[in-house]
Amino acid sequence: MKTIEKKLVLKWLILFNLILIVLYLMSNYIFMVPLCMIRRLFDLNGEANIPTWFSSTQLFSLFVLSIIYSIQIENEHLRRFYFLIGLVFLFFSADETSMIHEGITFHFSKLSIHSFFPDAHGMWILVYPIILIILGCIFWKGLLAFWNEKTGRAIFIIGAVVFVAGGVGFEVFGYYLSFYQKAEPMLHIIEVTAEESFELLGQSLMIYALLSKLYSTHTNTSSG
């Protein structure tokens, strides 16, 4: 895949991200579309709708690209690392559609435990990082090999940071906004828009990074 084609993919993904944001704002707040079904269809904060489908599709694409890349590289530790990353993205894709982390929140809310979050909301934010840290310790050689990569590494890391900032940072802020009823409605709109925008953009950037890695690997193989 040529550089211009990779950039075209990224541009189309970002364009679709922007379209979803505009449709969300227009249908839910600007024009207030009377049909509830249409508002729900583009609700960035909703489930089982177009934004959820698009996010799940991007995450599944990351799974496929990670697995393909893991097959093409020779470094055994790096191969295992990208295979693991692929499985993580597959889980995130399933989570996006089947609401696994919401289920974790529900079960924690039934337990009498101390929580940093209102009504035990967001407890998954503590569970997921613990699991990822454990996996990072197990596959630390692959993580080190990934850090020594050059092609696409910076974009992938930026995408991952943006994705986490949206999925964790803004979501935590959203929990407190929804808990304290005196929060300004405009803050809620900004929070939801920022949260979902960051998540989708982060996914798109990581897709571009993996496409760059695949192109580099293919070029090196062809040259050899």
What is the makeup of the main sheet? none
Number of domains: 1
**Count of strand segments:** 0
Q: Tell me the quaternary state.
A: single chain
Straight-line N-to-C gap: 17 Å
Low-confidence regions: none
The amount of beta strand, in percent, is: under 5%
Order of helices and strands: HHHHHHHHH
Helix content: over 70%
Write down the overall geometry: globular
Computed structural class: mainly alpha
Mean pLDDT rating: 81
- The number of distinct helices, counting runs of at least 4 residues, comes to 9
Radius of gyration: 19 Å
List the helices and strands and how they pair.
Elements: H1 3-30, H2 36-41, H3 50-72, H4 76-98, H5 100-109, H6 124-138, H7 140-147, H8 153-179, H9 185-223
Helix pairs in contact: 1-9, 3-4, 3-9, 4-7, 8-9
Task: Briefly characterize the structure.
By secondary structure, the chain is mainly alpha-helical. The protein is 80% helix and 0% strand.
